[in-house]
Specification:
By secondary structure, this protein is an alpha/beta fold. It is built from eight helices and 17 strands. The protein has three domains: 3-198, HUPs (Rossmann fold, 3-Layer(aba) Sandwich), CATH 3.40.50; 210-264, Adenine nucleotide alpha hydrolases-like domains (SH3 type barrels, Roll); 270-347, Elongation Factor Tu (Ef-tu), domain 3, CATH 2.40.30.
Length: 351
């Protein structure tokens, strides 16, 4: 039997991935990363559920203490970003530095296995013409998680398997019920484990960042109100500003130097272009000339047409066909050509 290590969070998706591969004849080895204490998929409750699934399938289960790595690579990264006035996207960072690379290294070094599978909704294929592994959106567009996987390297993609990429979430639930898995009816987790563990991002950040009162101002510098810390806000935010105005106001800018939240109209909070750093080209080689494709600037927003202009030192400039609302420094801009994920990077703060 071919051995394969399956990353188990304790949720229904990773459980079905493990069960499917097990029933296909693979020698499944369960692996759970202990990332943090508390309640949630990535913590103690999830580890118990993952262990139960492995016991039910009759396969071994390993737990790796990754709490220190998670603290430095994700918690410290998040806190530093919010303190500097950006809104980091931890999931892509976590997938690259905390999950897939360490899981593969552990599988190779400790388990004698060079394949890792997870319950992510995405697809991988090898393109012989380019000699590259390509990342594609999942068949179930509602559950597609490719946006969070844009930073995976070719080396990692060569050893990763996504069993759920070709099926829908409904089918996943049906398979879980068919195999009578203990996680079959387990509810969906929130998108961010830190939020699930602490109740809200604000509660999490308040444990690490001291509240510092500052001003909420308009573009002309007129004071409209006060805030208790810029880390409580994000670009495009409308609710919870605590200021009144004749028209709805949205967060346009977070200024850590002046400790100010700058607000304006929805039109003021739109951008015709932005620059992107730390770009990882996945399914194609880095282009030397402008290309046309689609871009998703947030997970929950649909891809929109864009011109991509290569810049120096691996950066790119995005020129949108239509100005986009709430383009947020620290979030990922991920490029697609239909279902094919071309690459992605981190949106920079405007100059």
């Amino acid at each position: 039997m071919t051995p394969i290590t399956v990353g188990l969070s304790g949720g229904v998706d990773s459980s079905v991935a493990a069960a499917t591969l097990h029933h296909q004849g693979y020698q499944v080895i369960g692996l759970t990363l202990w990332l943090m204490k508390g309640k949630g998929q990535c913590c103690s409750e999830g580890m118990v559920d993952a262990a139960m699934i492995c016991e039910q399938l009759g396969v071994p289960h390993h737990v790796v203490d990754s709490r220190d790595l998670f603290q430095t690579q994700i918690v410290d990264y998040l806190v530093s970003g919010y303190e500097s006035g950006v809104t980091p996207l931890p999931c892509s960072q976590c997938n690259r530095t905390v999950k897939f690379a360490p899981m593969l290294n552990y599988a190779k070094g400790e388990l004698g296995c060079d394949r890792v599978a997870t319950g992510h909704y995405a697809r991988i294929r090898y393109d012989e013409a380019s000699g590259r592994y390509q990342l594609l959106r999942a068949v179930d567009q509602r559950k597609d998680q490719s946006y969070f996987l844009y930073d995976l390297s070719q080396t990692l993609l060569a050893h990763i398997h996504f069993p759920l990429g070709e099926i829908t979430k409904d089918e996943t639930r049906q398979i879980a019920a068919q195999y009578n898995l203990t996680t079959a009816t387990k509810p969906e987790s929130q998108d961010l484990c830190l939020v699930e563990s602490h109740g809200s991002m604000r509660s999490f950040l308040d444990q690490y960042i001291n509240q510092k009162e500052g001003k909420i101002v308009d573009q002309a510098g007129n004071v409209l109100g006060t805030h208790q810390g810029i880390h409580h806000y994000t670009i495009g935010q409308r609710k919870g500003l605590g200021v009144s105005a004749p028209e709805p106001l949205y967060v346009m800018k977070l200024d850590p130097v002046m400790n100010q939240v700058v607000v304006g109209s929805r039109q003021d909070a739109t951008q015709a272009d932005c620059t992107v750093q730390r770009v990882n080209w996945v399914s194609i080689a880095e282009p030397s000339t402008p290309i046309r494709c689609q871009v998703r600037v947030r997970y929950r927003t649909p891809p929109v047409p864009v011109n991509v202009i290569p810049l120096e030192t691996g950066r790119i400039k995005l020129v949108f066909d239509d100005p986009q609302f709430g383009v947020t420094p620290g979030q990922a801009a991920v490029l697609y050509q239909d279902d094919l994920l071309l690459g992605g990077g981190i949106i920079e703060r405007p100059a």
